[in-house]
Amino acid sequence: MGKRAASLWLLSALVVALAACSQDKVTTVDPNLLPARYKDEILDTLKTLFDKNDTQTVTNAVISDPALRPVGSEQRYTVCVRYTAHGTAYNLAGNAERIGIFYGGHLTQLIEATQEQCGNAAYKPFPELNAVCLGKGCNR
After folding, report:
1. pTM for the whole thing?
2. Residue 8: inside a domain, yes or no?
């Protein structure tokens, strides 16, 4: 019985030690970390969106710098993007304005923007988006 009690005690001590170690590994993320690669993340997300919507080229692309703005009841870094998408489906072109919302320095949403969200954005040229070419006739 003595060996069994010692084994149970040792097993209990091991479980307690492992539990304590696992609690030490909890990390917190700063939700308002400045997004360093915001243009790349927006480009990747838009390329996926364009591919689904038959967009082939983009013109008139502009983007704002990351800025802390209210998102719901929180403050988050956001970026506004405006562009004209050209596709082959019915030879349509469409103007779009989107807002990218960042958490922990990474893009979590890229949604249609309202006038209140991006109406006063200070835009600058976004040549990387104008260079996007998908589908036939692209040099990729």
Report:
1. 0.75
2. no
